[in-house]
């Protein structure tokens, strides 16, 4: 019976300042570091032994993974970084304060941009200074794959190939996998795993730093889902 552990990165500096982050490579806050270390402590207490680790190419998720694995004495396991686990791209909203955006566009519109399944945010041009098209970590991607903004539907579409090609086969082989990523890439993955409806996914929240543990049967049906408390 394989286990999958999902961890949303610890609080980031822009979580703390209430800014839209997306693909901007923001670091963890002091609280975020503490949350990631607490996640590792919780994993150690539950005695889960991992075979593989996955994370995004953004340092808040990478560092969360490393702190968590260090905390459970498993920093040595094979680790894979992929843009497919990046946070959803918030387009032209990236860097903007969420409260100020609500004052400008209205609370309802900002809520729709943040939580709806298929509504895109204002898009960022590839020529914009903040475009990921200028970032070396995406140099090997087809330029058409680099988004100017994403909703949860698009995020799910880029996460599914990773699940089908990499993660599901390992789980089917009885291997335990840990994924440290972002609120929306993990919400998308949870939607797929649990077959959550487009409407109900709006209500799913991922707490920073908290391990979410799935047990599967031999056909990857979910047998149980548990959230580990962290200090």
TrEMBL record:
PROSITE patterns: PG_MUTASE
Name assigned to this protein: 2,3-bisphosphoglycerate-dependent phosphoglycerate mutase
GO molecular function, one term: phosphoglycerate mutase activity
Functional summary from the UniProt entry: Catalyzes the interconversion of 2-phosphoglycerate and 3-phosphoglycerate.
Annotated pathway: Carbohydrate degradation; glycolysis; pyruvate from D-glyceraldehyde 3-phosphate: step 3/5
Record-linked Pfam families: His_Phos_1
Highest taxon of the lineage: Bacteria
Active site: 9, 87
Organism: Limosilactobacillus alvi
Entry's family note: Belongs to the phosphoglycerate mutase family. BPG-dependent PGAM subfamily.
Binding site for substrate: 8-15, 21-22, 60, 87-90, 98, 114-115, 183-184
EC number: 5.4.2.11
Positions marked as site (Transition state stabilizer): 182
Coiled coil: none
Record-linked NCBIfam families: pgm_1, PRK14115.1, PRK14116.1
UniProt keyword annotations, A-Z: Gluconeogenesis, Glycolysis, Isomerase
UniProt cross-references to Gene3D superfamilies, sorted A to Z: Phosphoglycerate mutase-like (3.40.50.1240)
Reaction it catalyzes: (2R)-2-phosphoglycerate = (2R)-3-phosphoglycerate
